[in-house]
Write a structure and sequence with these properties.
The complex is a heterodimer.
Chain A (H helix, E strand, L loop, with lengths): L1 E9 L10 E4 L5 E3 L5 E6 L4 E5 L6 E4 L8 E3 L9 E3 L4 E3 L7 E4 L1 H4 L7 H4 L7 E4 L9 E4 L11 E4 L2 E3 L11 E7 L2 H4 L10 E6 L7 E13 L9 H15 L10 E7 L2 E8 L17 H5 L3 E13 L3 E13 L6 E15 L4 E15 L3 H10 L26 H8 L3 E18 L2 E20 L2 E3 L2 E3 L3 E24 L2 E24 L16 E25 L3 E12 L8 E12 L4 H6 L3 E15 L10 E3 L31 E4 L8 E14 L4 E17 L15 E21 L2 E18 L24 E4 L2 E4 L3 H6 L11 E3 L14 E5 L4 E11 L2 E11 L2 E3 L3 H4 L46 E3 L2 E12 L10 E15 L19 E10 L1
Chain B lengths: L20 H13 L13 H4 L6 E4 L7 H8 L8 H26 L8 H23 L24 H18 L12 H16 E3 L5 E4 L1 H13 L24 E5 L31 E4 L1 H6 L1 E2 L21 H4 L1 E2 L2 H5 E2 L20 H4 L3 E2 L11 E4 L2 E4 L3 E5 H14 L3 H16 L31 H15 L6 H8 L2 H12 L23 H6 L12
Antiparallel strand pairs in B: 1-5, 2-3, 4-12, 6-7, 8-9, 10-11
Helix pairs in contact in B: 1-4, 1-5, 4-5, 5-6, 6-7, 7-8, 8-13, 13-14, 13-15, 14-15
The chains are: A mainly beta, B mainly alpha.
């Protein structure tokens, strides 16, 4: 026997693997690797060393005459022994019977985003993530389609603490594991809040016996690539001229343009656009050719740094991390800075019989409050004729004949000083006592506290004909949070082949929130350092409110396994909520699931050895939804003095009955809602059929799930008969819907010498259908409210007219049904009911916004020191309402706006093949109506991420465990349907554009 | 643990706590507050429904798509039962009614001994309710009539065909009758309705009721007894109210709640609300110069401007007014002669804006290529007016808006007398308005005493400049109503009352479409377009309990 030494690293990353079991096959002698992944063991030449580590493949190596054996352990794709957190307890993946997706954190760990959910877009079948490009990192997450008519956000469980807040508030580098509980049999343990699915996040802890410092850093630049193609000054004038000529109106009857034009052989010809010296009567603005997108956008920088220190001892372990994420958005001055800190620690007592620990997170956000939607919209509609600045350096702005929209550069500049400060403290302290062997009593008390503070200065301005001489400072703060107290008892019972896990628990949650705001006007200085409330001299105004709710729950679960072959699980949860009246305060949510591991059966093992894993699963369960107003069961009056009347009705009660015209007014109360004491939980019943499989020792692995989810008693605020009057709003259990879908995940991995690769693909689809709606609210959903209704259709249906080409001749116009405003060059609408008249009976369902399917494809290749990763994501078969078309195609619909370059190619007698109707100044034909003209194919395929990494090896002696450099790009390639006429079907509205991002970064641990 | 789940509402009050005398007064104020809770889909001043739908005004704004719902009003042919503004209009009026009914339910329960203002406040609430039902009546003809005695759980059983057209008018009138009988002659607070306001509104209601309509909305007869009552009621206001010396005073803040104002929405600013409880009705109706900046709505039609022309006798050109256009940007305003009310009503390029130092210019107009160069004046104030309030991107003022004005009372009295065949008695009232108009030029002069336009107006002098027959008097009265109330809410509803909406508007469209191409496809369908349809949403929510209006089925 001689000493054999060596180092175990992770295949691909080259990262040192501490804690790997190294044993001599057939003996009991063995050791584990240390923090650097190194080991030393006495072995003979004919011994075979066995390297095993949870989550990795086991490798055997004959010693031979070697004294040094370095091993690269490939990750085990199937990870059948992986521990999966399933809610108040854990299970091995092979024992799962519910539809649970485990997220591969390694695939997304270096993404330059504040929100790991954004990086997950397309990676987990059945999980739909939509996000814009805003620096703050918000994302919309939908699990298995739209399950209800209200709030569809999933429930997040972070180290046992439930929250509905998005994940942009936690440091992605702190996440150890993430699992998605998709079906009811898995999610029911979270009962009343689980109907939209549950995402469980566990943060990192130090591993016993090892210390490690990890540092990650990346720098990214991002830029804007999805601008709409808008007209420049000359082109817009030409389109205006064409419109006037088409209408037979004198084009020179315009506030700004004049034209040199003539008729040549009966065809109007424009020789020259004549612009005035100034575009405004005040002579402050010369005609410009401003590229507004260029003015508002920038190539910007994202910086990300995080450092963590893990220290695991025998009696205690500590994980501490700090991170800084600074995302300067591609819209100038937009910025989100995030600071996080985390401390997870655990202490053992009495020979590990008692564990006491805590998880604590602090997050601080500083967001610059740029009115992005307005900036985006005004950059689109503001005419290029408007200069950014006047001749004297003031703000340019709309001139006569233009629409009343702001100069977007001013919007940015006048708001860049305004910031929002968000702080969240979240954590829990717990104790776990092993009362007798395998019987654990656990208690945990947690808090989740959030506060948001904003101080904004609204500056006075003059910008074209828009002006406001007043300034205002607004300060607001809200504080809110909940505490959670959980107690649970778990017992594991192993009776030879029969294995039981029992769980019994209770949970109490209490939420309290308060907010206030105050504002003043009349500031002598318009500087943010001056802009506190005190210096304001007039219009002192303020307000505030509060809210509270509580949940009280009990739950129990039993898992049973017979001989690793037959699996069963039963769950029940009872939830009480303050949101429901005494009649229906409690709801009960049962579930069960069954599994059969065929691959453990002798007949499979013997006859089909190629099968390494095969499991059939079935689950059934009931989950709930309580996302309604806290006081929904009460009839309430509110003392409302006044509300802002700029964009909506003032619903206040103050009135100048004395006719003074000013001063404090008498006021009263307004009814705001009708109580409904009969309110109860919305429930979803879901069945899931699943199969997990693996072949060739898990080289090929995957799963297929089919689900049917029926949601009933959906909580809605139905529209009500107007005669009921003010405060007619009430919550009720009204609608039902159904979602069905299939999710498929497939992976293939192979290692050939130094080359290893893994390809993972997923595809999922769902069909949504409204199955019940009260008659009286049918009209609130797409349809005509009478005979064409949403029943039996997706809630995401589009309803409207069918545009049937463009009238080419007077004969065609006359042959067509009566259609107000029809004419040559105009859109012909189909007479669906054949009554020779185009009216509202000619509308029908013309599209569905749900994709036919969504998919993702990830390919990872490692070769020696290099690793390369591609990730493609796409959706197929969805319809999009391209509202941009009202701006790009129709000069008439927004007469004072800038228009799209498509309008240059509009129909004229000389251009009869155009699909764009003739430009006109007056939309007599009502072409802005909802019709197939605006419905376009939204399919796209994006190269979400491509990453190349290089791991520096041979640093074992220097204390460095791992050093890796990488470069990556996000959203590099977009393939979209040719028929989609705006730039990005993923982002059809006016949201923050999705940028292309280039990143360089490093991972270092020692 | 049961207590743990019992979380009290934070910051709200239950209805039972609101029956103390102090809170009853507050509930009454609450109901008044909705008089001026306006947003463009439904405004108290009803200019989109009453003025844009008539021959007085174009919608204005950026183009036909800017508030396309109002464009549908304007051209009729595009209007639909699911036009969202129609539903909002219906909905908001019932919101307003519900606050009045809420107050009434509480007032009915309280003892006079506990709350000595009980009857007066009941009468005020019924006056308010009457006002809101009156608006529903002229907009929709048939509506569910719900008073405070009907339990809320029965609201969904009450259709809009419980009462006939005539009976519905009587229900509206009942509220004003109760108010007239129980309100004091004077109220210490000018915002509250008094006895005379109730009588005036009753007169207005009875005048509309007097013109009997069949199911096709045709006027089939005029109820003489109702006309007699109108005359009697109007005469009771004589001596209590009087015309302002200058017509302009009706449209200036400094003279609000004056001798001519009978009942007005009390607007205010610097009143501890974010931007003031200002006149949001008209927030879209200011021009586009930097002092204002939005949104160029409610533009006087060419037809209206032409209607202010007078002949050599200073009388209207009933038959030839529209033969020649008065063109903006020309010297037509000096070559033709005009009724001075023109420059109180219409902003004209080159003329001072709203009696101020600012000159209304072409550059103030938003989309002249579509809506021409004229804009509306009565509802606006000058930028330097004390009542002006910016509410970016909009603006308006704390100037009151009259719901009932004494000049209207004179017109109703004259109209009733004429239809009673007593046109000679009507003459002085019409002439009073013309005399006042003639004398209302003080604010329409430049420093050198020349006037903005060339004014020439005279009273009707039977035998001298006219032959005052019943037919002539009727035409004169209708013309006078148009000029006196131009660009206010009345024109369309008056045309319907007189039974001449279809012929007037289709004639107007035939000539006006040459000047305003967006009217090219405008058609008024007789028997349908006199009223808005019951909104589709309400038809559906009522599960078709409601009966759709004629022509809209």
């Amino acid at each position: 026997q001689a000493m054999v030494t060596g180092r175990v690293t992770e295949a691909g990353s080259g990262q040192a693997l501490p804690g790997v079991n190294v044993s001599i096959q057939g003996t009991t002698s063995g050791t584990v690797t240390d923090a650097d992944g190194t080991f030393a063991i006495a072995a003979a030449a004919d011994n075979v060393l066995l390297f095993s580590f949870i989550g990795y493949k086991t490798i055997t190596e004959k010693v031979g005459d070697r004294s040094t054996i370095d091993i690269e352990l490939p990750a085990d794709v199937s990870q059948l022994d992986e521990i999966v957190v399933t809610g108040y307890s854990t299970q091995e993946k092979k024992d799962l019977t519910g539809a649970v997706s485990v997220v591969k954190m390694t695939e997304i760990k270096d993404m330059p985003t504040a929100n790991p959910m954004r990086a997950l877009q397309g990676r987990v079948p059945g999980v739909t993530v939509t996000a814009d490009g805003s620096p703050g990192g918000g994302a919309t997450v939908r699990i298995r389609g739209i399950g209800t008519l209200g709030n569809n956000d999933p429930l997040y469980i972070i180290d046992g603490m439930p929250t509905k807040n998005g994940l942009e508030q936690i440091n992605p580098a702190d996440i150890e594991s993430m699992q998605v509980l998709k079906d009811a049999s898995a999610a029911t343990i979270y009962g009343s809040r689980a109907a939209n699915g549950v995402i469980i996040i566990t943060t990192k802890k130090a591993k016993a016996g090892f210390s490690k410092v990890t540092f990650n850093s990346s720098l990214s630049t991002q830029r804007y690539t999805t601008q709409l193609d808008m007209l420049n000054t000359q082109e817009r004038a030409r389109v205006y001229w064409q419109s006037a000529v088409n209408d037979g109106v004198d084009p020179s009857n315009h506030q700004i343009y004049d034209f040199d034009w003539e008729m040549v052989d009966g065809v109007p010809v424009l020789n020259q656009v004549i612009l005035p010296e100034f575009i405004d009567a005040q002579q402050t603005m010369r005609p410009a050719d401003t590229d507004w997108y260029k003015e508002i956008a920038r190539t910007s920088l994202i910086q990300s740094y995080d450092i963590s220190i893990a220290n695991g001892g025998d009696k205690s372990s500590t994980f501490f991390s700090l991170s800084y994420f600074d995302n300067k958005g591609i819209i100038k001055e937009s910025q989100s800075k995030r600071y996080t800190a985390r401390l997870n620690s655990e202490y053992n007592f009495f020979n590990k019989k008692l564990k006491v620990g805590e998880n604590l997170m602090a997050t601080h956000f500083v967001n610059t409050l740029i009115p992005i939607n307005d900036v985006m919209y005004t950059a689109l509609v503001q005419q290029t004729l408007v200069p950014v600045h006047t001749v004297t350096g003031g703000w340019g702005g709309p001139a006569p004949g233009m629409n009343d929209r702001h100069n977007p550069v001013r919007l940015i500049d006048d708001n860049k000083q305004n910031k929002g400060y968000f702080v969240r403290l979240m954590g829990n302290a717990y104790a776990d006592l092993e009362v007798i062997r395998n019987l654990h009593l656990r208690t945990s008390f947690g808090i989740d506290y959030q506060t948001n503070y904003e101080r904004t200065l609204r500056k006075s301005y003059v910008s074209g004909f828009l002006s406001d001489p007043s300034n205002q400072v607004n300060t607001k703060q809200d504080v809110g949070g909940n505490w959670v107290w959980q107690n649970s008892l778990t017992y594991d019972l192993d009776l030879s082949r029969n294995t039981f896990n029992f769980l019994l628990g209770s949970e109490m949650i209490r939420y309290v929130g308060q907010d206030f705001w105050a504002s003043r006007r009349g500031y002598a200085l318009e500087e943010i350092d001056y802009a506190y409330l005190n210096p304001g001299s007039s219009n002192k105004d303020n307000g505030g409110g509060g809210s509270s709710n509580a949940l009280l729950s009990q739950f129990a679960k039993v898992n049973y396994s017979y001989d690793d072959r037959y699996l069963a699980s039963v769950t029940v949860r009872r939830d009480g909520s303050s949101r429901f009246g005494s009649d229906n305060q409690y709801g009960i949510f049962p579930a069960f699931s069954l599994g059969w591991r065929l691959s453990e059966e002798q007949f499979i093992k013997e006859s089909i050895p190629v099968v390494s894993n095969l499991k059939l699963r079935y689950g059934w369960g009931k989950t709930g939804n309580q996302e309604i107003a806290n006081n929904a069961t009460n009839t309430l009056y509110e003392s409302v003095y006044a509300t802002d009347g700029v964009w909506n009705f003032d619903r206040g009660t103050a009135y100048d009955i004395g006719g003074a015209g000013t001063g404090q007014l008498p006021a009263g109360f307004a009814l705001i809602q009708q109580g409904n004491s009969g309110l109860k939980w919305e429930t979803s019943i879901q069945s899931n059929y699943g199969v997990d499989f693996g072949f060739l020792d898990e080289k090929i692995a995957g799963s297929v799930d089919y689900f049917v989810k029926k949601t009933s008693d959906i909580l809605i605020e139905p529209a009500y008969l107007a005669v009921i009057g003010e405060g007619g709003k009430r919550w009720a259990n009204g609608a039902s819907m159904e979602n069905k879908g299939i999710e498929v995940l497939l992976s293939y991995s192979e290692t050939i010498n130094d080359l290893s690769f893994t390809i993972t693909g997923n595809i999922s689809t769902y069909r949504n259908k409204i199955t019940k709606l009260p008659d009286e609210i049918l009209g609130s959903y797409p349809g005509n409210g009478t005979d064409k209704t949403i029943l039996g259709r997706s809630v995401n249906s589009i309803f409207g007219y069918v545009a049937d080409g463009i009238f080419q001749s007077q004969a065609e116009v006359e042959a067509h049904a009566a259609q107000v405003g029809k004419g040559i060059g105009r859109i012909r609408y189909k007479d669906l009911d054949d009554n020779d008249e185009i009216n509202d009976r000619d509308r029908d369902y013309i599209g569905v916004k749900d994709p036919k399917f969504s998919y993702g494809l990830n390919a990872s290749v490692t070769y020696k020191n290099f690793d390369l990763n591609f990730f493609w994501q796409g959706v197929k078969g969805n319809d999009v309402e391209n509202s941009y078309k009202t701006l790009t195609d129709f000069p008439t619909l927004w007469a004072g706006s800038n228009w799209g370059r498509r309008s240059l190619d509009a129909w004229t007698p000389q251009n009869p093949n155009s699909t764009i109707p003739a430009v006109t100044l007056v939309d007599s034909n009502n072409e802005g109506r909802a019709s197939t003209y605006f419905v376009e194919k939204g399919s796209y395929l994006k190269l979400r991420n491509v990453q190349l990494g290089y791991t520096v090896k041979g640093l074992a002696g220097s204390g460095v465990q791992n050093l890796r450099f990488y470069v990556q790009a996000n959203n590099l390639v977009t393939i979209k349907s040719r028929s989609y006429t705006a730039p990005d079907p993923e982002n059809p509205g006016n949201a923050y554009p999705i940028p292309v991002i280039y990143t360089g970064g490093l991972n270092l641990s020692f | 643990c049961d207590d743990f789940l019992n979380q009290k509402p934070q910051g709200f009050v239950s209805g039972d706590d609101l029956n103390t005398p102090e809170n009853l007064e507050k509930m009454v104020i609450s109901a008044y507050a909705l008089l001026g809770s306006d947003h463009w889909p439904f405004v108290a001043a009803l200019w989109p429904q009453g003025s844009v739908r008539s021959d007085d005004a174009y919608k204005g704004g950026d183009g036909p798509n800017d508030q396309a719902e109002m464009h549908a009003y304007e051209v009729f042919a595009l209007n639909r039962i699911d036009n969202p503004h129609i539903d909002v209009t219906w909905f908001r009026l019932y919101v307003n009614i519900s606050r009045a009914n809420d107050a009434l339910r509480r007032l009915n329960e309280v003892e006079e001994a506990t709350f000595e203002q009980k009857t007066i406040r009941q009468a005020e609430m019924r006056f308010l309710r009457g006002h809101f039902y009156f608006n529903l009546k002229i907009l929709f003809k048939y509506m569910p009539y719900i008073d405070e005695t009907i339990p809320k759980d029965q609201y969904n059983t009450i259709s809009n065909d419980v009462y006939s057209n005539d009976e519905l008018w009587s229900r509206v009138a009942d509220d004003f009758r109760f108010a007239a009988e129980n309100l004091p002659d004077e109220q210490s607070e000018p915002g509250r309705a008094n006895k005379y306001a109730a009588k005036a509104y009753l007169a207005k209601t009875l005048l509309f009721q007097a013109y009997q309509q069949n199911e096709q909305n045709q006027v089939t007869g005029i109820d003489q007894a109702k006309l007699e009552e109108v005359v009697a009621l109007c005469s009771e206001l004589e001596g209590v109210y009087s015309l302002h010396e200058d017509f302009a005073q009706n449209f200036l803040e400094e003279s609000e709640n004056g001798t001519e104002s009978i009942f007005a929405i009390q607007y205010s600013k610097d009143d501890a609300t974010p931007l003031g409880r200002i006149d949001w009705s008209h927030k879209l109706n200011y021009p586009m110069n930097p002092e204002f900046g939005c949104c160029g709505f409610h533009a006087p039609s060419q037809n209206l401007v032409n209607a202010f022309k007078t002949d050599a006798n200073g009388l209207p050109l009933f038959d030839t007014f529209n033969d020649e256009d008065v063109r903006a940007g020309t010297d037509d305003f000096q070559t033709f002669t005009f009724d001075p009310r023109l420059d109180h009503t219409v902003a004209i390029p080159g003329h001072p804006y709203k009696y101020s130092r600012y000159t209304f210019a072409n550059a103030w107009v938003r989309s002249p290529q579509i809506y021409g160069y004229y804009m509306s004046l009565k509802e606006t104030v000058s930028p330097d007016d004390a009542s002006f309030q910016k509410a970016p991107p909009f603006m308006s003022s704390a100037k009151n808006w009259d719901i009932l004005r004494y000049d209207e009372v004179l017109l109703w009295r004259a109209e009733a007398l004429i239809e009673l065949g007593r046109q000679d008695e009507a003459l002085p009232f019409i002439n009073a308005l013309r005399k006042r108009a003639a004398e209302s030029t003080a604010l329409l002069e430049y420093d050198d005493n020349t006037t903005f336009s060339n004014y020439h107006i005279d009273e009707y002098k039977p035998g001298l400049n006219c032959n005052w027959t019943k037919d002539f008097a009727r035409e004169a009265l209708r013309w006078e109503s148009r000029l006196e109330l131009a660009m206010e809410e009345d024109r369309f509803f008056y045309l319907v009352r007189w039974g001449i909406a279809a012929e007037t508007l289709n004639t107007y469209f035939d000539t006006e479409e040459e000047k305003a191409s967006f009217l090219k496809d405008a058609v008024f369908t007789a028997g349908r377009d006199e009223y808005l349809p019951v909104p589709l949403a309400q038809m559906n929510l009522s599960r078709n309990l409601y009966k759709q209006n004629n022509g809209w089925q």
